[in-house]
Amino acid sequence: MSLPDRRRVLALILALPLAGCGFSPVYAPGAPAGALVGRIEADAPNTRDSFIFVTEFETRMGRPEAPAYRLSYQIAIQRYDLAVTTQGAILRYNLTGQITWALTDIGTGATLTGGTVSSFTGSAATTSTVAAQTADDNARRRLMQILATQIATKITATAGDWGAA
């Protein structure tokens, strides 16, 4: 058996369990999540964190062109100092973030799905003001990326349950 034939056989063997469980791609033609691309408009951002969140969400779900759904959200972020020297200097900290969100139908005002997502990210603190601000900005950006991905994943994974069309 030649090498390409072995690869084909291995691919078929690996695909069998997926075929048996009803797996189908989220964005396949006719799939409910495919109808969501460019159809969800997030509330207008009013803070730097919310601006980053909306940007990251739109990166995953598409910029709204003909919105049929509205994403409302509330962001809460807390900072926890992790490593503190005996002199009181902070060497490392964690940012924990939580977003409570809801997806509503713009036409009817009905809430279709929602929930709360949370995660954390860490950063090293430095004595330089510019470096400390840059590290904090980077940690906040990473946190918003994680939370936007979680919400986009939940929306696309459950689109068939709440009737995305």
- Note the gap between the termini: 47 Å
Global Rg:
21 Å
Helix content: 25-40%
User: How many strands, what sense, and barrel or not for the largest sheet?
Assistant: 4 strands, mixed
Strand content: 25-35%
- How do the strands line up in the largest sheet? 1-2-3-4
Shape: globular
Mean pLDDT: 83
Question: What is the N-to-C order of secondary-structure elements (H for helix, E for strand)?
Answer: HEHEEEHH
Can you count the helices?
Answer: 4
Low-confidence stretches: none
Tell me how many strands there are. Answer: 4
Helix/strand-derived class? alpha+beta
Explain what you see.
The chain is of the alpha+beta class. Helices cover 39% and strands 30% of the residues. It contains four helices and four strands, in the order H-E-H-E-E-E-H-H. The chain has helices at residues 3-20, 48-61, 129-157, 159-162, and strands at residues 40-42, 69-84, 90-105, 111-124. The protein has a four-stranded mixed β-sheet with strand order 1-2-3-4, covered by helices on one side. Strand 1, helix 2 (48-61) and strand 2 (69-84) form a beta-alpha-beta unit. Helix 2 (48-61) crosses helix 3. The longest helix is centred in the C-terminal third of the chain and has 29 residues, at 129-157. It is globular, with a radius of gyration of 21 Å.
